[in-house]
């Protein structure tokens, strides 16, 4: 029987500087695109297969602003942030402003969607579904919110809607980068420095806050990987 599952190289980078992880993503993305461009001039039998990557990490405190983001959603200037040990970057992902920090699981899938499906909206829904299924194993009901990418708690309850997982991606020649950030035991006080994802009427939360106890990050990562493999019909190597 032929194994048709796409192989995805999984790496846990641990706690890593945001820019260092960003540069690594760019390196992998460029490598995949270079292969795809070279394949255009080769016969099918001579073409190379694109590699895929899934990076997990945590970042020291950092605020990032997506390419469509509004600087007004950064509530304090960069000097103020620097004094408090918070880095700031404008980047090339979709979405507005968000925070990354310790005890948050950040996932960066760098996938050639030509090997899966060429539908970025389906891709985003898959990322959301992975997190929805993961937190459901802890008894947390996550949902999608129309017009607001990510995973939310208490959808449709005005004044109570809160985001537990932010998402923002870049896709170039059907190769993805950036991804999701699930608040596990994240210090939510940092979100007071921004209007998270550009919203002023919605809050943020974490698994720890919802459950009233600290959650084991390793266990959450394993659950995310399980649902990633199932949804994308992939094999992690």
Task: Please tell me about this protein's structure.
The chain is built from five helices and twelve strands. It is an alpha/beta fold and 237 residues long. The protein has one domain: 2-Layer Sandwich (BirA Bifunctional Protein, domain 2), CATH 3.30.930. Strands 1, 2, 6, 7, 8, 9, 10, 11 and 12 form a nine-stranded mixed β-sheet that branches. Strands 4-3-5 form a three-stranded mixed β-sheet. Helix 1 links the parallel strand 1 and strand 2. Helix 3 crosses helix 5. The longest helix is centred in the N-terminal third of the chain and has 22 residues. It is globular and about 55 Å long. The relative contact order is 0.19.
Order of helices and strands: EHEEHEEEHEEEEEHHE
Number of H/I helices: 5
Classify the fold: give the CATH topology. Answer: BirA Bifunctional Protein, domain 2
N- and C-termini, Cα separation: 19 Å
* Count of distinct structural domains: 1
In CATH terms, the superfamily is: Bira Bifunctional Protein, Domain 2
Mean of pLDDT = 94
Q: Structural class, judged by helices and strands?
A: alpha/beta
Number of strands: 12
The CATH class = Alpha Beta
Keywords for this structure?
alpha/beta; globular; three-stranded mixed sheet; nine-stranded mixed sheet; BirA Bifunctional Protein, domain 2; 30% strand; 237 residues; 12 strands
Topology:
Layout: E1 6-15, H1 18-39, E2 53-58, E3 62-65, H2 78-83, E4 87-90, E5 97-100, E6 104-110, H3 120-136, E7 142-145, E8 148-153, E9 162-172, E10 175-183, E11 203-204, H4 207-211, H5 217-232, E12 234-236
Parallel strand pairs: 1-2, 1-12, 3-4, 9-11
Antiparallel strand pairs: 2-6, 3-5, 6-10, 7-8, 8-9, 9-10
Helix pairs in contact: 3-5
């Amino acid at each position: 029987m032929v194994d048709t599952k796409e192989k995805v190289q999984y790496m846990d980078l641990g706690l890593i500087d945001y820019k260092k992880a960003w540069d690594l993503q760019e390196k992998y993305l460029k490598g995949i695109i270079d292969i795809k461009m070279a394949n255009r001039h080769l016969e099918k039998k001579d073409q190379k297969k694109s590699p895929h990557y899934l990076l997990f990490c945590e970042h020291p405190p950092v605020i990032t602003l997506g390419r469509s983001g509004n600087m007004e959603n950064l509530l304090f200037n960069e000097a103020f942030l620097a004094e408090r040990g918070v880095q700031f970057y404008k980047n090339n992902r979709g979405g507005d402003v968000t925070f990354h920090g310790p005890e948050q699981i950040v996932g960066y899938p760098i996938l050639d969607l030509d090997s899966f499906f060429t539908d970025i909206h389906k891709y985003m829904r898959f990322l959301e579904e992975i997190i929805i299924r993961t937190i459901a194993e802890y008894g947390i009901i996550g949902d999608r919110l129309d017009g607001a990418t990510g995973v939310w708690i208490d959808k449709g309850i005005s004044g109570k809607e809160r985001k537990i997982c932010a998402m923002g991606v870049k896709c170039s020649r059907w190769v993805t980068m950036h991804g999701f950030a699930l608040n596990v035991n994240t210090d939510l006080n940092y979100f007071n420095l921004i209007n998270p994802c550009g919203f002023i009427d919605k809050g943020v939360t974490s698994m720890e806050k919802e459950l009233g106890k600290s959650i084991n990050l390793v266990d959450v990562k394993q659950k995310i990987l399980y649902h990633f493999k199932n949804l994308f019909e992939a094999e992690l190597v």
